[in-house]
Structure formats: structure tokens, C-alpha cells
Predict the 3D structure of the following.
Amino acid sequence: MSAAPRPFLIGVAGGTCSGKTTVAERLAELAGNGLALIKLDSYYVSDDEQPLEVRERLNYDHPSAFDWQLLNDHLAALSHGSTVPVPVYDYTNHRRSDEVRMVAPASIVVVEGILVLYEPTLRERFDLKVYIDTDADLRFIRRLQRDVVERGRTPDSIIHQYLESVRPAHEQFIEPSKRHADVIFPQGGLNAPAIDVLLARVRELVVIG
């Protein structure tokens, strides 16, 4: 019996709240069980030995915040037909929870996150590299709304974090990674024609697979 073909890997990058999740989830809806979705946020390094007040001040938009080795290991395992235990991150306490999400192999694997086109080893795995390009003011407003409602944070803490670490990291690491993209979506997740083109490509892959 011949081995299953290697999955088609898609990287979806872009700034905070640019619409990456919107695009990735649309792809997942279309492909169903034929697509495995991996979020870079799941691979934050867990500094459990640090007190919460220290973890709250860490720069979560810097490349050093992520466990690149574990993510690359998981993608290699998925490519070889193995199921992987993806960490579940606790945003309120800034640590990995005790839970994991089991992700099974699929014909298409989408990895979405702010820096997925930054890390060279990860970037080289992708068959298609997408960058979601959204204006900074819109991204900030979305982040403010999300973190207050979903993560229980105060507006002051969100603004401070944005100015101290989110914006500088975007300018230093995330925005420059756009040059590695095969496709750039202006207007982010609201760009319906661009999303339709990507969905059409994924639909082809699902049918072929």
C-alpha cells in the first residue's frame, strides 16, 4: 500500500487582528475534515516558573515568545501521517493550560499566526504563503474590543501593551515578513474577492485529494 501524499501546507500571516483567523476559519469550513488548522498562539512558550505579574509584562509579539521547535516537530509529524497534541493556551493567566487539542493529519494544513512567515524553518515548509494586510488603526480597534470582551483585560493594559510591544514588534518582525508571501490580501479578512480566489484553490485541492 502506497503512503498517503504529503499534505499541502498553507501559512497565513499578518498583524494582530488583521483577519488571519477569519480567512483560516473560512478555509476550514470549506474543506471540513480535509483541513487541519494550527494556530501559532497555541505555541507560546509557557513560563510557568514566573509569577503572573511577570508573565503579564512579557512581549508576546516577539519571535522569542514562541516554541518554534515544537511547532516544526508537530508539522513534520502531521506530514508523516501522525496525530499531534497541540497545546491549549490560557490567555488570562499567560500560560499553557493542562489541556491539549488532538489534531489529525489532513490533506491540507493551515498554520495561522502573526509570525508564521518570519521563522525560516517554518516558512520553508509552506506550499503557499499568504499575508493578510490590514490598516494599523483597524487592527488596534479590533484588538481592543477582543481583549476586553474575550480575555478580560482592561483598556489601559491593552493600550500600554500595544504601544510598548505590539506595534514595535509589528514594525520590526511582522511587516517585513510580508516580502516572503506568495499572496498578499489588502483589506484583510474583509477582502471577499481575494478570499474567494484562495477558497477556489483550496476547493481544487480538496477535490483532487
Summary: The chain has one domain: 8-198. The first helix runs from residue 20 to 31.
